[in-house]
Design brief:
Elements: H1 5-14, E1 18-22, E2 25-28, H2 29-45, E3 53-57, H3 61-73, E4 77-80, H4 87-97, E5 101-104, H5 109-115, E6 123-126, E7 139-140, E8 161-166, E9 176-180, H6 181-195, E10 202-205, H7 212-224, E11 227-230, H8 237-246, E12 251-254, H9 256-262, H10 266-270, E13 278-282, H11 288-297, E14 302-307, E15 316-318, E16 332-333, E17 337-342, E18 354-361, E19 367-368, H12 372-378, E20 379-381, E21 388-398, E22 404-409, E23 414-416, E24 419-421, H13 423-431, E25 436-446, E26 450-459, H14 467-477, E27 486-490, H15 503-512
Parallel strand pairs: 1-11, 3-4, 3-5, 5-6, 6-7, 10-11, 12-13, 13-14, 26-27
Antiparallel strand pairs: 1-2, 8-9, 9-19, 14-15, 15-16, 17-18, 18-21, 20-21, 21-22, 23-24, 25-26
């Protein structure tokens, strides 16, 4: 199956059903499929060929979805650029991918111009007309409206490239992860299977489509014939709760950040949304206080704690019935996927060990676009000739039952007093303290300790705790060398484009602001990192 076949198949079964809900717009499956076909034909007429790359840069998420399926219909591979993308980042993407076309919102065109993309051979196509009174010398996808609505005559197979998803670049230049149709369909099928999705599901997606967690909400919904409600951002959390009620939301993918914001709302704390049947979380484990809040407001929802990375989309999930027993675990391998841990020599480890996670499955990407050395380091030969396995660079431990516990990135491991320290272990410990919503531990160079540890945390509004109180608690939970040297209580944490806490920025701040307050710290009238209220 090709990725775009999911839309066609759902159109055949549910053509009059709503596929996408956006700002002031509802799109049925039949309309979505016809529009994707016309965009695909328009791209082909503009020189896009099988195997080409096409960039998509728009704030309108409905247009982004229709555009990416149009790119697939043209036999090309898509890359969704974050609508917050700036010229240097876009210049890098354009130079690396050499796109044959760029689909862009007219309001973002000036950023393409600044990045020099409009001076490349790439064909510039607007995702909507430029507006009355504006003269821009480019076609728009609306111009494709007169083209036939049947599929373009482009042949493709499931080993063809479907997408290049770029990493954040926190450890260097962003890497383009090469995902085939087979990779993406396999991942979507597996996730939908363990969640138990049905055509009756309505998913609320507040995550960016440039972030694979957000992108796959659409891909999965089109696979099983569900509906996706696309909300541009989480800037207005009260509106999110209104959408849950008004749109009959049954599925809600979240991040710890989203939960932390919701928990501050009285309407969330006191409300009840019984129609939500599942909530998913990937990345950092949800604090116990967040799990309790979700259960209170979504009384009928199963909570899925999961782990994944863009190089294979998803790896594992914790069955909801295990979340009370193993709240910090991300479970075991998802269907049609195999995982194990290896030591520093690459030898397989038994349950109850700590080591690097290795992933095997049809969801594992081809490698990194035009980065052969990085590909060889990360995607290594498997047990079968020609097979690839993914060496994640993530350090896990397993318990005696084989459940996975994420400890941190191999590159993020700290060395304090000659001992290895996992930031995740510190974060998990403080998140067990009632009222703590978010925590990020980072290291910074120290001439005596090697790495000193600085802990940033966010607490429930109105909860007053000094850093001395928090340190005393951590001393009861952790070995001495793991207890942070500095504890900073913050009102909020900086975010990256995916909505996650920006660990890289916090790490840099820890180095530069060792003796001063962080720019994200609470005002000086509240407890500071010294544990005393400043005058």
């Amino acid at each position: 199956m090709l990725l775009q076949d999911t839309l066609e198949n759902s159109r055949m079964r549910y053509q009059d059903k709503t596929a996408l809900v956006g700002e002031n717009r509802r799109v049925r499956y039949a309309e979505a499929d016809d529009t994707a076909n016309r965009i695909g034909r328009g791209l082909v007429e503009n020189g896009v060929r099988r195997g080409d790359r096409v960039l998509i840069f728009t704030r309108d998420r409905v247009e982004a979805v229709l555009s990416l399926f149009g790119v697939l219909r043209a036999g090309a591979a898509f890359t969704v650029i974050p609508d917050t993308g700036r010229a240097p980042y876009i210049e890098h993407l354009s130079r690396v991918t050499e796109p044959s076309a760029v689909l862009v919102d007219p309001d973002l065109l000036h950023i393409l111009e600044e990045a020099g993309v409009t001076r490349t051979p790439a064909r510039i196509i607007l995702t909507r007309p430029p507006g009355e009174g504006r003269e821009i010398p480019y076609d728009s996808t609306e111009d494709f409206g007169t083209l036939p609505a049947d599929k373009p005559p482009v042949r493709a197979i499931d080993l063809d490239l479907a997408s290049l998803i770029f990493t954040s670049g926190s450890k260097g230049s962003p890497k383009g992860i090469m995902l085939t149709h087979l990779n993406m369909v396999a991942a979507a099928r597996s996730i939908s299977r363990y969640i138990g999705n049905t055509p009756d599901d309505v998913i609320l997606n507040v995550l960016p489509l440039s972030f694979d967690y957000g992108l796959y909400q659409v891909l999965m919904a089109f696979l099983f014939g569900g509906t996706v409600v696309l909300e541009p951002s989480f800037a207005y959390p009260v509106r999110i709760l209104q959408l849950i009620q008004n749109e009959g939301i049954t599925g809600f993918p979240v991040l710890p950040t989203v939960c932390a914001i919701l928990e501050r709302l009285q309407i969330f704390r006191e409300g009840s949304f019984p129609g939500v049947r599942y909530v998913t979380n990937t990345g950092a484990a949800l604090p116990p206080v967040s799990i309790q809040a979700l259960r209170r407001s979504f009384p009928n929802a199963k909570v899925f704690s999961m782990y994944g990375l863009s190089e294979c989309k998803r790896v594992s999930y914790l069955p909801p019935e295990e979340i009370d027993t193993r709240p910090l675990s991300v479970g075991k391998a998802m269907p049609n996927c195999e995982v194990w841990l290896v030591d520093e020599k690459g030898l397989r480890l038994p349950d109850g060990s700590t080591g690097e996670l290795v992933v095997r499955g049809s969801n594992v990407a081809l490698g990194y676009w035009r980065m052969p050395e990085e590909t060889i380091r990360t995607f290594r030969p498997g047990s079968l000739p020609g097979e690839r396995t993914l060496y994640t660079g993530d350090i896990f431990r397993t318990d005696e039952d084989g459940y996975l516990y994420f400890l941190g990135r191999r590159d993020d491991m700290l060395k304090c007093r000659g001992q290895k320290v996992s930031p995740r272990e510190i974060e998990d410990a403080v998140l067990r303290l009632p009222g703590v919503l978010e925590a990020v531990a980072v290291g910074y160079p120290d001439p005596v300790l090697g790495h000193a540890i600085r802990l940033y945390l966010v607490s429930e509004e109105g909860l007053e705790r000094s850093s001395d109180e928090i340190r005393k608690y951590l001393q009861s939970q952790l070995e001495d060398f793991k207890v942070p040297k500095v504890i900073e209580i913050c009102r909020e944490l900086p975010r990256n484009s995916s909505g996650k806490a920006d660990r890289l920025m916090l790490s840099g701040a820890a180095e530069k602001l060792m003796e001063t307050a962080s720019p994200w710290a609470v005002p000086p009238t509240t407890p500071t990192a010294t544990g005393k209220a400043s005058p």
